[in-house]
Amino acid sequence: MIWLILATAVIGFSCWGWRKASDATAFFAASRSAGPILAGLGGTAAGLSAFVFVGGPGLFATIGAASLWIVLSAPITGALQCWTVGERIVDIVKENKVLTVPGLVATRFGEGSPRALSALAVAIGGIATLSVQIKGTAIVGEILLDVPGWWVALATLIATLAYSTAGGMRAGLVAEAVQGGIMGFSALAIAGFTLWHAGGPMRAFETVQRLKPELLGIWSSAGPTAGIGLFLLFALGTCAQPHYLQKFLMLDRRESLRWLPAVMTASLIAVLTVWIGVGLGGAALWLDGNFILASPDQLTPTLLEAVLPAWMTPLALIAVVAAVMSTAASLLNLVAASISRDLPLAFAHMRGRRGSVENELRWARFATVAAAAVALAVGLGTSRSIAWLGVLGWGTFTAALLPVMVVGLNWAQASRRGAILALIAGPAVQLALELWGRKFGLTALWEPGLSGAAVGCIVLVLVSPRKMQ
Amino acid sequence: MRTLVFLLSCGWLFAQTIDSPVAAAVVCVLAIASCAALGSRRRQSIAFVVFLCVLSLLIAAFLTYCLIGEFSAGGGFIVQVLFFLLLAPFVPLFYALSFPNRPR
The complex's ipTM? Predict the structure, then answer.
């Protein structure tokens, strides 16, 4: 019955989106119709994913409170984003009517290579992050519904594709805001019930302290430098995540920025209670022998199946599906924009032609479906854990876009050549460290995303001229 | 700006290379404060500067306590949760209250 209602809602919503998304501004920038609540809830829903519901509590069960370094920056990220890039982006949009994140880079550094390189980074990071959503859905669906995981992943992706392809972000943003509300409510409920079953927060804390005190240590085996690295990666990294930056392109007016951090922070804190609550309460119940875990990623689904009331399983499943769909819709739109708009515009400029894309909406819809197919193959084929796939996607965006967005947008002397080299150097270093880390175990020493961003920033400031041109 | 970005970026790479948590913490606090200050249009506002100093001191105190604090098992976790809950209402509220009515 629930699935029938959801399917009807998706079909109805897709039809509404098809009617509303009549041009590129509607498809890529939601007709610039978002106020603080729509953009804030949508931003949180897009930024938080299966990673939070499945990977987060699982990571807590593995490395304990050290995993919280990923979420500890949450109270400052909303305001930091607005201070650092949000206000500048809104000013640029007012003058230039930019539709995409690579479009912002092109407005600041000129057409051609800057747009092409940032579009490539968005496409690659987007596919990596999309694959996290798909893998998360497959794991949760397999345990909770007792059907092959890829069925659930495919069904979720098809539902997301329906309204993303039909209505782009015009439909996607409204869906994300609703999904953000569902995620917040469900996270509070699941965390509350888990802690209640564990005897309350203090009892859960005492259980973990008694049976496995190392889980309450604030530094993992990787050490304090790695912990601080995660804190910084997720604090500054939000300023370079295209699915957050995209929301600034959709704001209806500058004044909407005022309450945007408050909405984002409140919804972020509500959803993140699942990480702390299910992490602590679930670990206590697991250590107390209430259930056996096959792998840390399975803490949330196993807990739902073995301990929590039966009515909570569909609620959790809807929350996870909402988390997956919201992030997937944004990322599909970003990847589609990169493939169907930004890369053609950049290549046309490189060949000396004036940029315009014919049949833009048709190509955007086709690119949305293609991006989903690639992400499905990657997500179901990879053997990496959800938590670290999430960090990989976040790191790719950070390494590529942090130098050009944070430094580039705010420093008048940043040059086109510097931006191009930073867009190459950042992801190259990040990718090299990822590959090197997997082979020689050096990732613990050098956090790939942040190291890539640092190298990108160095390249940008060294290559840019000393005097204003 | 050039020197600040260069020093912070090199500082971060250096802190990781020698695996120095103290250097990492210093870069972390300065990087967050610099990002907010350099991007914001109201860095000449006294209230903004004071707030940023207080925020930086709070983050610095938290990281210092985490690095040198003699924790009993579980003490660190409580400090983390308190830091999380303490900052959550104040940072976005300050942003809203200090938002300029007219853009420059």
Answer: 0.94
Tokens 């929590």, located at residue: A308
Chain A residue numbers touching B5 (CB-CB < 8 A): 407, 411, 457-458, 460-461
Question: How far, in Å, CA of A267 to CA of A78, rounded?
Answer: 11
| Average pLDDT estimate for A377-395 | 71
User: For residue A392, what are the CA distances in angstroms to A132, A154, A388?
Assistant: 10, 23, 6
Which residues in B lie closer than 8 A to residue A284 (C-beta atoms)? Answer: none
Would the pLDDT of A214 be above 60?
Answer: yes
Tokens 């650092």, residue located: A84
Kindly report the backbone phi and psi dihedral angles of residue A22, in degrees, each rounded to the nearest multiple of 5, phi listed first: -100, -10
Q: Which residue has the higher pLDDT, A54 or A169?
A: A169
Query: What does pLDDT average to over chain A?
Result: 88
Which of A164, A192, A190, A166 shows the shortest CA–CA distance to A176? A164
Give alpha helix (H) positions in A238-298: 242-249, 260-287
Distance from CA of A303 to the nearest CA of B (A): 22
CA distances from A107 to A97, A120, A342, A458 (A): 10, 17, 12, 22
Chain A residues in contact with B35 (beta carbon < 8 A) = 80, 83-84, 236, 239, 406
The DSSP secondary structure of B60-82, one letter per residue, reads HHHHHHHHH--PPTTHHHHHHHH
Q: Which of B14, B20, B55, B64 is CA-nearest to residue A75?
A: B55
Nearest CA in chain A to B23: A225
Strand partners, A34: A251
SS3 A223: coil
A168 vs A23, A31, A162, A366, A467, CA distance in Å? 10, 10, 10, 12, 43
Asked if A347 is an interface residue toward chain B (Cβ–Cβ < 8 A), one would say no
